[in-house]
Amino acid sequence: RFLACFSSNSVLTVVSTTFESKVLEFNTSSGSSSPPRSMAWCGEDSVVLHWKNLGVLLVGPYGDWLRFPYGEEDEMVTAAVTGSRVHGDSEVYLVQEMDCCRVLTSNVVELLQRVPPGTADLLRIGSIEPGALLLDASDAFDCGSSNADEAARSITAREGLLSEAILDCVAAAVGEFDVRVQKRMLRAASYGLHFACKDETYRNKNPGRPSHEAVAFVRASRKLRVLNAIRRQGIGFAMTSTQYDAVMPKGVVARLMAAGRPSLAASVSEYLKLGRRVRDYARAMKASAFVSSQPESSMTDSQIAEEAIRIIQGKEKGGENSQDKEEDSLSSPPSSGMYASVALAAHNSGRKGVADLLIMLEESPEDKVHALLTIGAYADAAAVAAKARDSNLIYTTICAYEGGLPNNEEGKSLYFSGIINKFPTEAVNMFTSYYCRLGTLAVGDANPAVNIFLRRQKHTEAGLMIAKKALLVESMEGNQREKQKVEMLKDASKIFDVGGKDCAFQKACVDEQIQLMTEQEQLRLAYGSNEVAPPSSSVTSTIISILKYGAVDQRSAHKLNADAERIAKKFKVPDKRLWHVKVRAFSESGQWAVLRNFCDSRAKPPIGMKPFALAAIKWKQGEAEIMHYVSRMHDKTDADDRYDLLCEARLWKKALEEAVKQGDGRKIANVRSLCNNPDVQRLCDKYISR
Q1: pTM score, whole prediction
Q2: CA–CA gap between residue 540 and residue 519 (Å, rounded)
Q3: Closest CA to 151 of 167, 165, 169, 168
Q4: Strand pairing of 109-112 and 65-68?
Q5: How far apart are CA 382 and CA 424, in angstroms?
Q6: Calpha distance 534→94 (Å, rounded)
Q7: Cβ count near 182 (within 10 Å)
Q8: For position 5, what pLDDT does the model report?
Q9: Is the torsion defined by CA of 440, 446, 448, 449 positive or negative?
């Protein structure tokens, strides 16, 4: 809301942030004509300024001021806030905070805070505020004065005044730093509560439940106990009540642990009954500090581990409310990750035996795996991840193991051998699947997957991986690509050969593929064209390409046919299959004369005449070409095929004659329904009417 400025004429000016009103002007020229070294707000309405050799000046909202000398021979007396201290010559730093200003020197840390209005009302001489009256009555009661009861009854005479007085005393106690003043004000609040309990009207407000004032008194007492504990000189964690409310108890515990006070943090969390996770974490930090601070000769590893377990479970010896803690720990085990964090602390302090004993008790697979990875027990971490059936943890373990090895050939060898020989089966299978998937990609490297299979004595999978990769080679063009494929297939054949009888079938397939690719290359070189035998993995497609090339190079047709026969014989292509391949090749390339000669080469082809007729029909040849093959189907078993072929060729008259010849009325009716020729339809009707 306000802006504090220090002008060149040594005047402190406080204005509103809109620069519309001036709140304060304070002239400091009598003390120093130079500007201060630092300036900060103290709360919302006071300004703190610091000059070297002059000390700290606190200026209030109405121009009131206090000077605290921080010099070589000066003494600073802060009776209302922090007591008396002597300071040496040192640098002074002002740290602005939400309700105070922290003064830092090389020797001490002090808080400057304007006296809260509620405290001022209670302690002002002659104050008639309800809280001041209750405080006077309590003091009189402590001194044994008879006026105490009369003073207290004067407060209860008016409704609501006693409640206000109790809350004022509680609020003033919370804002105090002096323990004696805190006790004095809490005694006054307790004195007022005794009178409130005797008041029937007051009791009827919340029957069966504690009053608002009683709840506030208990909360304030607990807060003050925590604040006084952390403000002790041995702790040095100065904090105001407002700051405590802002960071909340969990924040106080977290700051204590960050400051290296885990024992106090655990005690505070237990005393305030914070959440289970917070208490467990505080206990774990305390146990971590315990195992890290033990000298090597004081206790054995098992003794240290047992004591750490008791601390984690809240059963440490000599603790407060040990019976309640034991019952609580038995009803609910520690949160996940507690044993793992203490085990890491033991490992970092050189207590490997303690770490091993503690990490066995961790129930969370995720925390246990990460702890084992940090320690370097990669195989144990993989075993835990595999037992939990968590693929993410298994993958994390594998990656961490790879990152822990040197980035060279020796490290890669250790990486593969370590996973295969030391890791559980689930991890090895995932490892293998990952590299197999990577190896099957066109741009992937198959060598890692092959290396894994060979190390696992899986020669079939290793050879198949290379063979599949060979068929995906696309990085080169022309002959170079084919040569690379052949070399890779030869490597696969060698691996299959090592596998023995279990890989005999795979080896035969790969060897035949190598022979086929060699034959294809020789054909391309012999005829000077890639069309004669394009790169292919199929014997059938190779034979088809050779025969089709006869339509391009008719002079070499006889030689091409001989090469096709030679390849078919070499790769043991069955006779019927070869006939079907030739029918397909000649028909697709339009070599109908060659096809007819091929058909006439035997009186009765092994595949029959139907494939020839179907080829002629498919490629829309004339009636003469089709009937050349259909007319040679003389067997009785070919009758249905003759009829079907004629219908397929849409030769309706011939189909009708065949149906009449067979004396099948259904076939005649079928011709009648399919044919659109009126003459044929009349003939069908004539034969049907008979």
Answers
A1: 0.65
A2: 13
A3: 165
A4: unpaired
A5: 7
A6: 86
A7: 21
A8: 93
A9: positive
